[in-house]
Amino acid sequence: MISSPLLAAAAVPANAGLWGLFTQSFDVFTVLLLVGSLVAVAIIVRCMLDVRESRILPEVSINRITDLARAGREEDLRAFVRGDDSFPARVMREVLSSGRKDRNSIRETAEIAASDECSRWFRTIEPLNIIGNLGPLIGLAGTVWGMIIAFTSLGESGGQAGPSDLSLGISKALFHTLLGLTLAIPCLLVFGFYRSIVDRICTRAMVVCTQLVDLLPAEGTAGPVDAEPRAELKPAREKARV
Q1: Taking burial as the number of CB atoms within 10 A of a residue's CB, which of 163, 166, 180, 228 is the most buried?
Q2: How do residues 42-53 score in pLDDT, each as one tens digit?
């Protein structure tokens, strides 16, 4: 007589690999996890292209703004920041369009604009955090659904269901859990990595913007007031709200 372990091994289907489990467990939860994976890949690619210091805080833009501000060429400065999308240019654009009056109001406008810019860059990577946290929850929902299928089969057979009758529901349950974790782990890793990068770059950008804003002439001054005490913009981690 063939032993029961050999019978169980002989009963395992040939397509019991990952692809076989995928096709067998394909349902609405699998579709949601696949869509989440595609969205996560698109966001990661965007982060690789955009979340860089050369993109957020390019030295060329900083030098150009510095030269124009020191030379007092306000019209040229306005034209440049309108066509530049870097962090300092966007802050200077808000300052120049605010109808500044005195040094304190200039700095306040710059602080608000810089805070908005920091929040904008943090929002760029925030979807990775959302997807990373939703992935296991969707996988858990699929796991519960698979267990419902398994116990339904057990109930319909009057408690006499064999392993083959329960295998579909159990495989669905475990495979959804696997997909959810596979989606969550890389998303959260990449989110943590780029969050530290954004925080570092935005903190430096705050300091740079403080220096650039102080080059602008204020009401009652003939030019930049370097001797006036500087109130540096607050760090990105304190001002940005994710």
Answers
A1: 180
A2: 999 999 999 999
pLDDT in tens, 78-132: 999 999 999 999 999 999 888 766 788 888 899 999 999 999 999 999 999 999 9
Q: Give the pair of three-digit tokens for residue 92.
A: 């200077």
Distance of alpha carbon 82 from the chain centroid: 27
The domain segmentation of the chain, as residue ranges, is 30-239
Separation of alpha carbons 3 and 67, rounded Å: 86
Instruction: Bin 61: left if φ > 0, else alpha if -120 < ψ < 50, else beta.
Output: alpha
Amino acid sitting at position 5: P
Q: Which residue has the tokens 């890793």?
A: 189
Question: Which range has the worst mean pLDDT, 4-8, 61-65, 99-103, 143-147?
Answer: 4-8
Task: Report d(CA 209, CA 187) in Å as an integer.
Answer: 32
Percent of the chain with pLDDT over 70: 71
**75, amino acid identity:** E
Nearest to 210 by CA among 76, 67, 81, 111: 111
How many Å apart are CA 216 and CA 158, to the nearest integer? 83
